[in-house]
Design brief:
Blueprint (H helix, E strand, L loop, with lengths): L1 H9 L4 H13 L5 H17 L4 H27 L10 H10 L6 H18 L4 H17 L43 H11 L10 H17 L3 H17 L2
Helix pairs in contact: 1-2, 2-4, 3-4, 4-7, 6-7, 7-10, 9-10
């Protein structure tokens, strides 16, 4: 993990470094919940210092999706195995059991924190498309989790890799609600490729609830009313356009 972090710091949007970090989580850490939570926390500062690093933010999306999948998996296990009478534990046994328990995952709270994190970064570092793409993903996950999408959240693939070369985040039958990819006209060809691969995941999404859309539109209005950065305004308007396609 240290090698991955050092390599990611030396070379911007280091696809190989972040892909290997994901591999380590999957095959060595076995997507352990505590490790996932630690990674989400420990990479927050790194992300705030590398606001144009597309691969780094995709890694945070991978962590969130993996935590969601783990939550769904744990819930299904509980449903299949109703509470049974358990032998009484001695005080020391209780302490040992408590220390061995995996931390409880509060996914809605984690996603709310990520939205706040996104807001702070967009306000502090205007004109970075990576931040707007990340916000779109968090918005999607937030409403997918809350049950406003008619698909099982377990369909989110934790195997997605930073460059978007693995399976899509979500596939939805073609319908009237087809979202458009964010504009990336100002980016180099290599950057365009990375962003286009990433935003293909969200080209087809059912309409989320009106309250969530309203809050996002308020955020966009606030950004546009105060920003003087041309790129920031372009990205905000592109995000608004994408949101509008969801409510059609």
């Amino acid at each position: 993990m240290e090698v991955c972090g050092e390599a990611a710091g030396r070379y911007p949007s280091n696809y190989n470094a972040w892909s290997h970090r994901i591999w380590v989580l999957q095959h060595l850490a076995k997507l352990d919940v505590k490790v996932l939570l630690d990674e989400l926390s420990s990479t927050k500062h790194w992300a705030s210092m590398h606001v144009s690093d597309h691969s780094g933010f995709h890694y945070r999306q991978f962590l969130l999706k993996s935590l969601i999948n783990q939550t769904v998996k744990d819930s299904s296990v509980l449903e299949q195995n109703p509470l049974k009478s358990e032998p009484a534990l001695l005080p020391k046994d209780e302490e040992a059991a408590a220390s061995a328990e995996e931390p409880r995952i509060k996914i809605p709270h984690l996603l709310e924190e990520e939205v706040e994190f996104s807001t702070d970064l967009i306000d502090s570092y205007p004109g970075h498309e990576t931040l707007w793409c990340h916000r779109r993903h968090v918005f999607y996950l937030q409403h997918h989790l809350s049950g406003r999408f008619p698909h099982n959240v377990a369909q989110l693939s934790p195997a997605d890799s930073p460059g978007g070369t693995s399976s899509d985040l979500h596939h939805n039958p073609a319908g009237p609600h087809t979202a458009q990819a964010m504009e990336v006209d100002g980016l180099s060809d290599s950057s365009k490729q990375g962003y286009s691969q990433e935003t293909k995941r969200l080209k087809r999404t059912p309409a989320p609830d009106s309250l969530g859309l309203e809050m996002e539109h308020r955020f966009i209005d606030q950004v546009l009313s105060t920003c003087r950065n041309v790129e920031q305004a372009r990205f905000a308007n592109a995000y608004r356009k994408w949101l509008d396609t969801l409510s059609q």
